[in-house]
Amino acid sequence: MKDDIKLLYAKHKELEGKKVTIGGWVRSVRDSKNFGFIDLNDGTCFKGAQIVITPTEIKNYQDVAKLNAGSSILCEGVLVNTPNNKQPFEIKANKIEIICPTTTEYPLQKKGHSMEFLREQAYLRPRTNLFNAVFRVRSEIAYAIHTFFKSKDFVYVHTPIITGADCEGGSDVFRVTTHKFYDKEYMKTATPQNDFFGKNVFLTPTGQLEGEAFALALSRVYTFGPTFRSENSNTTRHASEFWMIEPEMAFYDLKDNMALIEEMVKYLIKWMFDNCGAELEFFNSFVDKGLIERLKLVLNSDFARVTYTEAVDILKKHNDKFEYKVEWGADLQSEHERYLTEEIYKKPVFVTDYPKDFKAFYMRLNDDNKTVAACDLLVPGVGEIVGGSQREERLNVLLDLMKFKNLKEEDYWWYINLRKFGGVYHSGFGLGFERILMYLTGVQNIRDVELFPRTPKNCEY
Ligand code: 4AD
């Protein structure tokens, strides 16, 4: 075992003169004849520890002094406080064990690599300051999300990853099969019925439908897990595998739903300020200069609310700025969403009540028979981060909507039954975990907040 560098920063005053052992990855070595310095990082916090080495104390001084960035070492030494220096303490080493020295082939020898290059080195990039910070924040925000829902007495449910229901009603799903597609002879008799599950099944694009069943028993539930979409979108905001937080609440209408979304987003921003201060400062300096100011502003302002119809009227006045012209009945493109939130409102905005034509079958039909009780949350810098709705709880209306969308009742028999057996009005939403991380860190590409991103034609690791 080793001592965490984070702990040394927290307790260095009381550790004066004490023996400590630290281990990690060398960022740099500076040496002269009589002494040298190693900057060691172990990922437990932003800052590294400065280790002082001398040939009199360190038997393998010559080897240590030659270490390249990225080498792993274990160091025993004594902590000495240095209040007049840049770093508050240093470690006077009396033993350095070289565990794995990197060769000159180590791809991250130098600083300042492009994001594209670092994406190709996804197995090493967590060693850089930026990705160190991104993945610590990813963990913190996951914890914050659980804490938020726990504080509101939600039940955490684990909806299945393999599903028979293609909820979003689209074709953008990955099939799960044991059929041998590479075997022409075998495939002559392959059918969904003689496949592993005896029917077509998919990697889940959402846990919502299963979540609804549990909300109608436990009142308030949420899922938080991986979801999969095979849409061929090569954008900075789409991934083929991403994580989603999907709460589902019985006896919540659309307004209650939006109030919860707003409270949650603000809670997560506050969590960043309270628990990820060093990371936030770093992102603000090196990734997005306006980040802190923007997040502070959001924390202290009300999110805007606008119906789709109102949004179309507003956007139409700026049609000269758009590649795709806005008109009622067409879905909003990301250029329109960004314009609304970044130029018109300059803060997060809910767009509600979209036409039923391009929204999912489960959204509650409004009295106008044309629009549904949907709410998308758009934020500056990212665009849509949440998609939600009040669900259609009226059996006949749901069946009509399914017909309208060409969905087969037998594929959704249990979901339909929930409207016969004690169904109540209810609502829910999906927050894209990576999208909120982009928003909180200022990172511009979804590939840079996922550990090993999966996108079309890209599944290297
Ligand atoms: O709007 P979506 O498709 O909604 C649903 O899946 C609902 N079943 C959610 C619910 O009501 N329980 O997706 C919800 C959110 C989006 O707002 C976005 O943040 C994220 O999921 N998302 C993606 N994130 C990364 N890559 C993709 N390909 C994404 N597709 C959706």
The main β sheet shows up as:
8 strands, mixed
Report the portion of residues in β strands: 15-25%
Could you say which small molecules are bound to this protein?
4-amino-1,4-dioxobutan-2-aminium adenosine-5'-monophosphate
What is the N-to-C succession of helices and strands? HEEEHEEHHEEEHEHEEHHHEHHEEEHHEH
- Global shape: elongated
Q: Nearest-angstrom radius of gyration?
A: 27 Å
What is the helix tally?
A: 14
Structural class: alpha+beta
Strand order, biggest sheet? 6-10-11-16-15-14-13-12
CA distance, first residue to last residue: 29 Å
Report the count of strand segments.
16
Question: What percent of residues adopt helix (DSSP H or I)?
Answer: 25-40%
Extract low-pLDDT stretches.
none
Mean pLDDT: 95
Describe the structure.
The protein is of the alpha+beta class. Helix content is 31%, strand content 24%. The protein contains 14 helices and 16 strands. The strands form three sheets. An eight-stranded mixed β-sheet has the order 6-10-11-16-15-14-13-12. A five-stranded mixed β-barrel has the order 1-2-3-5-4. Helix 4 (129-151) crosses helix 7 (254-275) and helix 4 (129-151) packs across helix 14 (433-441). The longest helix is centred in the first third of the chain and has 23 residues, at 129-151. It is elongated and about 85 Å long. The mean pLDDT is 95. The protein binds 4-amino-1,4-dioxobutan-2-aminium adenosine-5'-monophosphate. 4-amino-1,4-dioxobutan-2-aminium adenosine-5'-monophosphate binds at residues 167-168, 206, 208, 229, 238-239, 242, 244, 246, 384-388, 428-430, 432, 434-435, 446.
